[in-house]
Each structure stands twice: as structure tokens, then as C-alpha cells.
Design goal:
Structural class: mainly beta
Largest sheet: 10 strands, mixed
Number of helices: 3
Helix content: under 10%
Number of strands: 15
Distance between the termini: 73 Å
Order of helices and strands: EEEEEEHEEHEEEEHEEE
Shape: rod-shaped
Length: about 250
């Protein structure tokens, strides 16, 4: 709260001028902006009672998040599709005058892309996929609910929904599952040397927030060598023709 002195002049009956003053109380309040860790900071403002903050940025940069607006709370909010929030234009308008010390916190949607990982190839790959995806999501406090997979090149490997690895369980196109179903996925190395790259998008239960990236299954392929047995004391030769590899 600040006090200001406003001068006032009046004249006495004897013609003497008198300058005195009176105290006018003007309330000012502090408006603080919480944008969260790693985000663009916004300086606090001193705002007169009944007025609104000015020059508040309409865009906040924070890696892995999309800025939506503000909430009159001390905590940053991750939007799940049901909460209300204010736009920057609204908090600067006369519709939301300041009457007390106020904190506005940023509202974000999680949209983290490029969250890549690498794991070693094993048949029972599911638990490793689940662990890596969950780890990438936890960095953004996102609880993975549905997982969308985009399979890699079948030259280097094939994913299956279970241990039977039959044609009916092969994952050949975009595949959606829960985080628990992900653990039952198995892997079979392909015919050519190379690493298998799997795309994924994990969403929370609201479907509003997502983490996406790729998972490289390292050394996913067979060694492409021919093995044969020769009896002791005998020799043998095998004609080798040129093998075509995918470009």
C-alpha cells in the first residue's frame, strides 16, 4: 500500500495564501507470474487497485509444453480438457481488476516430441519398451494410458503382440495398446543387418497430453552368415552368389 500527498491551496479571510495538503491513500498490489521450471520468466508487476497488469506476454516458451493461458493459482496447471483458464488478453482486461496480491500461474498442454531411446534387441522386448516409454513420460509428469506404435522396417525385425509370433499376431501397421499390454510384445530379428526403429506416441487418460519419439532396437538383425557342418577329415566348398541388400 502506497500513500501520496496531493497539494491543496486555499486563501484565508485576511488574504493570506495557505498551502497545505491531505493524504490520499492509493492501494497497489503485487502481481506475480509463475511459468514453471525451464520456462520463460515474466517479471512481477505493481498494479493499482482496480487496474490490471499490462504487457503480459501471450506466449511462454517451455520445452515439451504448449502454453495455453493462466490460472489464478500458485501452481502451474497441466490441462486435461476440463479445467478453466484465462487468456493473456483476459487478465490484462478491465474484466479482471486486481484487488489483492495475486499470482497467475501458466497453463500448459504436454506436447513433448523427440523423446528418443535405444535398447538392446531381445525376444521379450515388451518390458523394455514399457520401461523406456514410462521413463520418458515421467520426465513430464505424464501417466501413459494409451500407446500408439508405428512399426519399423521389417527387413530389420518384426514385432508381435504375444509370444506365439504367428502371422496373426504380427504388428504390421499402426498399433494402439495400453501400457500394460505393451509388456507382452515380442520381437523377432529380420533377415538384414541393421537396427530396428520404432515410433511411439504415449497419451494420458484425457488424450490431451502426449509424449512421442522413437525407440531404436540395437543389433536387431541376424548376422546373415551361412553355417554348415563338414565331417572330420573331409573338405567342402559352398558357392556364394551376390546377395541383394535393401537400399
Amino acid at each position: 500500500m502506497n500513500s501520496t500527498i496531493t497539494p491543496h491551496t486555499f486563501t484565508l479571510n485576511n488574504g493570506t495564501a495557505c498551502i497545505c495538503g491531505y493524504t490520499k491513500v492509493t492501494n497497489t498490489y503485487t502481481v506475480t507470474f509463475n511459468t514453471g521450471s525451464g520456462a520463460t520468466s515474466v517479471p512481477a508487476q505493481q498494479v493499482q487497485a482496480g487496474k490490471s497488469p499490462v504487457n503480459v506476454p501471450s506466449s511462454i516458451s517451455r520445452t515439451g509444453y504448449t502454453f495455453l493461458g493462466w490460472t489464478a493459482s500458485s501452481n502451474v496447471l497441466i490441462y486435461t480438457g476440463t479445467q478453466s483458464y484465462l487468456t493473456t488478453a483476459q487478465i490484462m482486461s478491465t474484466s479482471y481488476p486486481i484487488s489483492a496480491n495475486t499470482t497467475y500461474s501458466a497453463v500448459y498442454r504436454v506436447s513433448a516430441s523427440g523423446q528418443n531411446a535405444s535398447i538392446s534387441a531381445v525376444t521379450n522386448i515388451g518390458p523394455y519398451l514399457s520401461s523406456q516409454i514410462s521413463s520418458k513420460c515421467s520426465a513430464f509428469t505424464l501417466a501413459p494410458y494409451t500407446i500408439q506404435l508405428s512399426p519399423g522396417n521389417t527387413y530389420y525385425g518384426t514385432l508381435y503382440t504375444g509370444s506365439s509370433q504367428t502371422s496373426g499376431t504380427q504388428i504390421s501397421g499402426s498399433y494402439s495398446c495400453s501400457i500394460s499390454q505393451l509388456s507382452s510384445i515380442t520381437f523377432k530379428a529380420g533377415s538384414y543387418s541393421g537396427n530396428y526403429t520404432l515410433g511411439y506416441t504415449a497419451k494420458d487418460s484425457s488424450g490431451q497430453n502426449s509424449v512421442s519419439g522413437t525407440i531404436t532396437i540395437v543389433s536387431a538383425a541376424s548376422t546373415n552368415k551361412i553355417e554348415y557342418t563338414v565331417a572330420a577329415g573331409r573338405s567342402s566348398s559352398v558357392p556364394i552368389s551376390r546377395m541383394e541388400y535393401p537400399s
